[in-house]
Design brief:
- The structure holds two protein chains of two kinds.
- Chain A is an alpha/beta fold.
- Chain A is 23% helix and 34% strand.
- Chain A has one domain.
- Chain A has twelve helices and 23 strands.
- In chain A, the strands form three sheets. In chain A, strands 5, 6, 8, 10, 11, 13, 15, 16, 18, 20 and 22 form an eleven-stranded mixed β-sheet that branches. In chain A, strands 4-3-7-9-12-14-17-19-21-23 form a ten-stranded mixed β-sheet. A two-stranded antiparallel ribbon of chain A has the order 1-2.
- The longest helix of chain A is centred in the N-terminal third of the chain and has 16 residues.
- Chain B has one domain: P-loop containing nucleotide triphosphate hydrolases (Rossmann fold).
- Chain B contains ten helices and twelve strands.
- In chain B, helix 7 links the parallel strand 9 and strand 10.
- Chain B is globular.
- The chains are: A alpha/beta, B alpha/beta.
- At the A-B interface, helix 9 and helix 10 of A face helix 2, strand 7, helix 3 and strand 8 of B.
């Protein structure tokens, strides 16, 4: 009998990326290259206030001074920052008053991605902001949200209409000097989403942003800022796709979350950027800085991520637990196949007393994929009775992939309780055969096993997206033994 | 005829393990296969169900009129061949119930039937749980994860009841069972016996055959069936051990 695992791995490697199409639409693209002029150009295009231009220019200065990161567990491909265009927008105009003004081709693109923008067809109870290359093209359910005093719009719009809020919070969690890619983002970010939930308001629907890179040789640098005022609650989801291209494209986003006293932010990501072909050509470099701060007591920030795309994923959604008794959570499933690399994890900074954090990381490696968990749990001297629980599991499919874990623990307070558990397992031929023998084919068997393995994380996703994520996991692992 | 094995030969890693098996099973029959360790009992189960690494080197097997050896393992299962594993596998995070519904629907899809309705599935689950005395709490747990040896074996019989196969092979289902569990498992099997299905019971010991009374008993030795008879043969083996059958190796069939 032929060796099933090999066949399946082969099949799996040949699996096509579903969202690899290109939308043919007239774009206005800035000339390649990065300089102060580029920043002036972007800022002028967007009609920004002086304070923001100044902030961008400061960020550019710190970008120039930043060294390239060197600590990662993979070979960082040289990124030529002068070979990228930093602004691309559909020509018909960057701002749309209503959906009717949006190019039908664009609407069709999002429909194709399964993101209907026309409100009557929208997923029940989910407000969507869609970002196409550099520009937010549509935000739905605005009026409904307005009734609750919730602001959900593109960040460009927020800069114009809620300038004081943006100015007050932008860069307070991820400073423009934070790291090379965060500095780059601050200098050239073109759009992203902005959310403000007023005191005591429980956001009545899921908020969601879909990011799409379309144009060649552009980078996408979106910036998301979410503020949950005292006693409020919001659940936010982002999804992302990009066309298939032979070149690598850079995606360097920044996400900042701010949770005031008793507020809760739940941030979920389903990341499906183009991963490159099976030889490792092309694909997105997903270098993202995500950080949240629990400013007030009893605040809670929870990150959930399902990472299946990108050639290289490099991100550590973190929580600064400043408020007493605040909580930080990180739930992650990261899949790497072919030559994909994921180096991801979280940082939990326990500053306030009685702060709690929980980390559940599930890595799945197939083909020649490399998956690293990198995490930091830091307990400051003042963080009395801080607690952390970390569980970090790796699942291997085939014998050419790799799983690595780099957990760091720094505690300056002896009252802290820190637990760390880790496991590594393989999908066994005997597991597959057992399911085969019950009438389940290998592909479904693998999907069942992987979804079972990732269940703890998938359970954290909003219901509407849990099903989507389950399917995505099955599809991205289709044909692999596990 | 449900199963017709003709001169079946197979090897693992170039080592010949089945050396010409002949066996015929009709609906309604229970066949016991006994034999000393390493005689090829479990290998026969593996070859019939299509386990990887077992290479068929000769002979043929027809199952319900079809060429069994030509089918994938999942198609063999969908055609109604069930193996109660000697060592059932644990699959963390996959609930027993979700697994069973997937299996049942895959089998139904193969026969061009629509997926089972939730209500109907629930009813079936309750009915079969009761029939084979399977603890409802285990139904919602992860598949075999943290189950005791006995619970795993009972889960095999519960799955058997749910999937309602034409031919079930019980591979040393009695091993590691205490007397109460053995009784429960056997009762389950006896309740599931009908004139439409058949069982092949692989065992070391005559003990199981006191509970599940076979129509035929075969002795497997060195990759061949060396003796066949009725249930009395099992008693004889219990008394005399296996040594006496080892000497005159003859081919036998039913």
């Amino acid at each position: 009998m032929p060796n099933k695992s090999d066949d399946i791995l082969e099949e799996y490697s040949n699996k096509e990326y579903e969202f690899g199409f290109v939308t043919d639409i007239e774009m206005e693209v800035a000339p390649k290259g990065l300089s102060e002029e580029t920043i002036h150009f972007i800022s002028a295009k967007k009609g920004e206030p002086q304070w923001l231009l100044d902030w961008r220019l400061k960020a550019y200065q710190s970008f120039l001074k930043q060294p390239e990161p060197h600590w990662q567990n993979f070979e960082l491909p040289k990124v030529d920052f002068q070979d990228i265009s930093y602004y691309a927008a559909p020509k018909s105009g960057a701002k749309y008053k209503s959906l009717d003004e949006v190019d039908p081709e664009l609407i069709a693109t999002f429909e194709k991605l399964g993101i209907p923008l026309s409100e009557q067809k929208i997923l029940a109870g989910v407000a969507v902001d869609a970002v196409f290359d550099s520009v937010s093209v549509a935000t739905t359910y605005k009026e409904t949200l307005k009734e609750h005093g919730i602001i959900f719009c593109s960040i460009s719009e927020a800069v114009k209409e809620h300038s004081e809020l943006v100015q007050k919070y932008l860069g307070t969690v991820v400073p423009h000097s934070d790291n090379l890619y965060a500095a780059l983002n601050a200098a050239v970010f073109s759009d992203g989403s902005f959310v403000y939930i007023p005191k005591g308001v429980r956001c009545p629907m899921e908020l969601s942003t879909y990011f799409r890179i379309n144009t060649e040789n552009t980078g996408q640098f979106e910036r998301t800022l979410i503020i949950a005022d005292e006693g409020s609650y919001v659940s936010y989801l982002e999804g992302c796709t990009a066309p298939k291209r032979d070149e690598n494209q850079l995606h360097a986003a920044v996400v900042e979350l701010i949770a005031m006293e008793n507020a809760e932010i739940k941030y979920s990501t389903v990341q499906n950027w183009y991963p490159g072909d099976k030889e490792g050509n092309g694909g997105i470099y997903n270098f993202v800085t995500k950080r949240g701060v629990c400013r007030g007591a009893h605040a809670k920030i929870s990150w959930t991520q399902v990472e299946t795309g990108s050639a290289i994923t490099w991100k550590y959604p973190s929580v600064i637990l400043q408020g007493d008794y605040s909580t930080g959570e990180f739930y992650s499933v990261a899949v790497t196949k072919n030559k994909q690399i994921a180096d991801t994890g979280t940082k939990m900074f326990h500053i306030g007393k009685g702060t709690k954090s929980r980390i559940i990381s599930k890595g799945i490696s197939a083909g020649e994929g490399q998956n690293s968990y990198r995490g930091l749990v830091q307990v400051s001297a003042k963080a009395e009775n801080a607690r952390n629980f970390t569980q970090c599991d790796s699942l291997l499919i085939g014998d050419r992939c790799g799983a690595h874990t780099f957990p760091y623990i720094e505690s300056k307070n002896s009252s802290a309780t820190i637990e760390h558990e880790a496991t590594t397992s393989k999908i066994g031929e005997d597991q597959i055969f057992y399911l085969n023998q019950r009438g389940i084919d290998t592909e479904k068997a693998v999907a069942l096993i992987v979804n079972g393995y990732a269940k703890e994380v998938l359970n954290q996703l909003p219901m509407e997206f849990a099903v989507e994520a389950q399917k995505l996991l099955s599809i991205s692992l289709e044909g692999s033994v596990g | 005829m449900l199963l017709d094995i003709k001169n079946l030969q197979a090897s693992v890693e170039n080592k010949q393990i089945l050396k010409g098996i002949n066996l015929q099973v009709n609906p309604g029959e229970v066949h016991a296969i006994m034999g000393p360790n390493g005689s090829g009992k479990s290998s026969l189960a593996s070859v019939l169900t299509g386990r990887q690494n077992y290479e068929v080197t000769g002979g043929e097997v027809s199952f319900d009129g079809r060429d069994l050896l030509d089918m994938s393992p999942e198609d063999r299962a969908r055609e109604g061949l069930f193996l109660a594993f000697q060592y059932p596998i644990e699959i963390p995070g996959v609930s027993n119930i979700n697994f069973l519904r997937t299996a049942l629907n895959e089998i139904r899809a193969y026969h061009n039937e629509p997926p089972i309705e939730a209500k109907e599935f629930l009813k079936l689950t309750r009915e079969k749980q009761k029939l084979v005395e399977f603890d409802a709490k285990l139904t919602n747990r992860s598949l075999n994860e943290g189950f005791s040896g006995g619970e795993k074996k009972r889960n095999e019989i519960f799955q058997l009841a749910m999937l309602n196969p034409k031919l079930s092979i019980l591979d040393e289902t009695d091993s590691g069972l205490d007397i109460d569990a053995l009784r429960i498992v056997s009762n389950g099997v006896n309740k599931l016996r009908s004139d439409k299905n058949a069982f092949i019971v692989i065992t070391h010991y005559q003990r199981l055959l006191e509970y599940i009374v076979p129509d035929f008993v075969h002795v497997l030795y060195d990759g061949k069936i060396v003796k066949s008879g009725t249930k009395e043969l099992a008693l004889e083996l219990e008394e005399k051990g296996y040594d006496w059958i080892k000497e005159p190796v003859t081919t036998a069939s039913v």
